[in-house]
Design goal:
alpha+beta, about 160 residues, 8 strands
């Protein structure tokens, strides 16, 4: 995996979350994950394709997902992880990935993204496409509340 593509995920997520939530989550210790893969209870997967391809899997617990959804809906309380909240966090994944794709393209690569896929309580479907020898780079971003937004990245090409 070309590590020069990891920083756009970190910067894209921190900048987008800062814009949406008004706080810039702190970068935690980056680690490598391999199969069998486990993710946060709520995961938004975005597939990248072009000269750079792979997946960005954005994971979080339900309290953080509801918090983000509330912020995206101008502070409206979000009491449950309902369809509106699911749509909001999926859009957050889309916004982050759009920023990531733009940053990667600025390095001369061609890259586009597919629409987000939300998995709640299950292993993200993209994981079935990860080869046993492939590793995912896992980047935790910590909110002031202590909640963690995890970015799992698999880049091919």
């Amino acid at each position: 995996m070309n590590v020069e593509y990891i920083n756009p995920f970190i910067q894209g997520a921190q900048n987008t979350i800062n814009t949406v939530c008004g706080e810039k989550p702190a970068l935690g210790a980056v680690k490598v994950k391999s199969l069998p893969y486990s993710s946060e209870p709520i995961a938004i997967t975005i597939e990248f394709f072009g000269s750079v391809s792979g997946y960005g899997i954005y994971g979080m617990g339900e309290p953080l997902a509801r918090y983000i959804a509330s912020k995206m809906m101008m502070g409206m309380p979000v009491e449950s992880f309902n369809d509106i909240a699911k749509s909001a966090v999926s859009e957050l994944g889309n916004m982050i990935s759009g920023n990531v794709a733009t940053m990667i393209a600025s390095k001369g690569a061609t890259v586009d993204i597919k629409p987000p896929i939300l998995d709640a309580g299950t292993v993200p479907g993209a994981v079935s496409k990860v080869l046993p020898e492939e590793k995912l780079i896992s980047v935790p971003l910590s909110f002031a509340s202590g909640d963690v937004f995890t970015i799992d990245i698999l880049i091919r090409g």
